[in-house]
Amino acid sequence: MNTTQITDRFTVHPLPFAVPARLAVWLQRIGAAWAAPAQARIDLRQIDAGATTWVARPRGCVVRCKAGTLWLAFDGEPQDVILEAGESFRCTSASRLSIHAMTAAAVSVA
Known about the structure:
About 15% of the residues lie in helices and about 40% in strands. By secondary structure, it is mainly beta. The chain has two domains: about 5-35, no CATH class; about 40-110, Sandwich (Jelly Rolls). The longest helix has 14 residues, at about 20-35.
């Protein structure tokens, strides 16, 4: 039995047949892509006025503005959000998120 394995979210499945090496590498990459994406997490971060930080897959994350003013914009979507100190926003989009500091700010994403 070949030692090539496909990984999904919870288990590893050995393949019951021989697989060429290049195909095995491709299958492992596909398996990794199907695994649950890691939740984006940014512990408290200070952002200077005018600076921007990005979150690749924000769906399900909560962005909290601890200080200052933040402008949240999702790639390819018309929805923008402005957060003031003490406010938060739960992301429902998987589109890349830019977090722009309109004033010096502190932000966390969990």
